[in-house]
Amino acid sequence: MTDEQIHKGLAGVLVDTTKISKVNPETNSLLYRGYPVQELAAHCSFEEVAYLLWNGELPTTDELAEFTDGERSQRALSPELKAVIDALPLTCHPMDVCRTAASVLGAQHEQADDSSLQANMEKSVSLFAAMPAVVAYDQRRRRGEDVVEPRDDLDYSANFLWMTFGEEAAPEVVEAFNVSMILYAEHSFNASTFTGRVITSTLSDLHSAVTGAIGALKGPLHGGANEAVMHTFEEIISSAGEGDVAEHAAGWLDAALADKKKIMGFGHRVYKNGDSRVPTMKASMDKMVKHYDRADLGELYTALESAMGERKNILPNLDYPAGPVYHLMGFDTPTFTPLFVAARITGWTAHIMEQLEANSLIRPLSAYDGTEERHLG
Ligand SMILES: CC(=O)SCCNC(=O)CCNC(=O)[C@H](O)C(C)(C)COP(=O)(O)OP(=O)(O)OC[C@H]1O[C@@H](n2cnc3c(N)ncnc32)[C@H](O)[C@@H]1OP(=O)(O)O
Ligand SMILES: O=C([O-])CC(=O)C(=O)O
Asked: Where are the catalytic residues (predicted)?
């Protein structure tokens, strides 16, 4: 086998078809079931987008009412799941908590091994409903705060913020959070979704596939980058000392690039001319910068983005504006990637169901370049 036949990282390889989303780097667009994501972010709730991803169409008023009733009735965590989370050390990453919770929810599910479309749809909705409570519960326990139970008079985003902070968020904050959930919901065959599809292709169960997908999302080359962006900002701020932070960003970047560091929140495997979701998320970030009166953070964002553009011509991905937005809202930095989990559960599970509709075991080939055949003795 020659090197030309090897597609390291599966870069550029078409492995299957999907009807769920279309990522088009040429037109810099992203469609969910045919709708531009920017339109969905401007006009829809995250619940409507979840319904769309799973069912292929936006819900009617009655369908949405039935769907949200189902979601709201499954928001609370069982005492058993709370006990499992409480048993995890505070030294573990919140992504480990999400991964464990997904696994526990599978083990507790009465139809865990029923992979019919109906059972998988129900499991998807229940994971979607419960994950915000997992994320909120974990952040609060790490802060030594009491649990805040879900409210069924609030929509998904407002309730998520309520459970995390114990107070109702301002409407513009709820709106920015809703936008972030929609933008994070789905992105074709990214590494975590592909992981979920690989697991599903063995005819394993939905919770196992989601648990594996969470593991794949944790890495800083994928979802972990939103958290890493905030660490970068903190490093720039602390190393600026008394100096101007935005001015210091370029110097910090030069040193990081000279050290061959990857700058988190920049670059993308598919988009080479900019991530289709960034302008929408950046517009929400600008609103949050204004809302929280943190022009300094906006200036640092712009300074690092310009310096990266000048030096490497590499543009930001969605994680770059999402990190600062979650920081401004008051989330602890290690909670950022769990927020991505909560959103992406919709895309992952849509792909799991699609994979099962026309399954083929995913099992690529490798070229052996180890020791030639040899024998004992
Ligand atoms: C929601 C998401 O998951 S979006 C992705 C989030 N991940 C990140 O933000 C992590 C930082 N970015 C990266 O590591 C990369 O851009 C990836 C992994 C996202 C995409 O990588 P690939 O498509 O494999 O591109 P690859 O890593 O080969 O980069 C191509 C070149 O650009 C450089 N490059 C790409 N991204 C970056 C970056 N963020 N910082 C510095 N250099 C970079 C590489 O060093 C490489 O340079 P070289 O040709 O001189 O060796
Ligand atoms: O598509 C990718 O490779 C990564 C990404 O942006 C996502 O999963 O949202």
From this structure: 268, 319
Tokens representing 93 are: 């990453």
Residues 6+ apart with CB under 8 A from 218: 93, 95, 99, 224, 337
Ligand 1 closest atom vs CA 9 = 24
Give the residue among 125, 148, 141, 140 at the shortest CA–CA distance from 77. 148
Q: With a 6 A CB cut-off, is 268 part of the ligand 1 pocket?
A: yes
Per cent of the chain over pLDDT 70 is: 99
Distance, in Å, from the CA atom of 151 to the CA atom of 354, rounded to the nearest integer, reads 32
Longest dimension (CA), the chain: 75
Q: Please tell me the distance between residue 10's alpha carbon and the centre of ligand 1 in angstroms.
A: 15
In whole angstroms, what is the distance from residue 336 CA to residue 345 CA?
A: 15
217 Cα: distance to centroid of ligand 2 (angstroms): 10
Q: Find the ligand nearest to 219 CA.
A: 1
Residue 226: CB within 6 Å of ligand 2? no
Q: Would you say 210 and 217 are in contact if contact means Cβ atoms under 8 Å apart?
A: no
| Correct CATH for 225-329 of 1.10.230.10, 3.30.43.10, 1.10.357.10, 1.25.40.10 | 1.10.230.10
If you classify domain 21-221+343-357 with CATH, what class do you get?
mainly alpha
pLDDT in tens, 217-250: 999 999 999 999 999 999 999 999 999 999 999 9
Side-by-side strand order, sheet with 29-32 = 21-24, 29-32, 35-36
Which amino acid is it at 253?
A: L
Averaged pLDDT of the chain = 97
Domain with CATH 1.10.230.10 in the chain: 225-329
Pocket test for ligand 2, best of 318, 341, 351 (most atoms within 8 A of CB): 318
At which residue do the structure tokens 């006009």 appear?
43
Nearest Cα residue to atom 1 of ligand 2:
190
Q: List, for residues 52-61, the tens digit of each pLDDT value.
A: 999 999 999 9
Q: Is the pLDDT of residue 1 over 60?
A: no
- Using alpha carbons, list the distances in angstroms from residue 96 to 104, 184, 206, 289, 330: 12, 19, 18, 30, 21
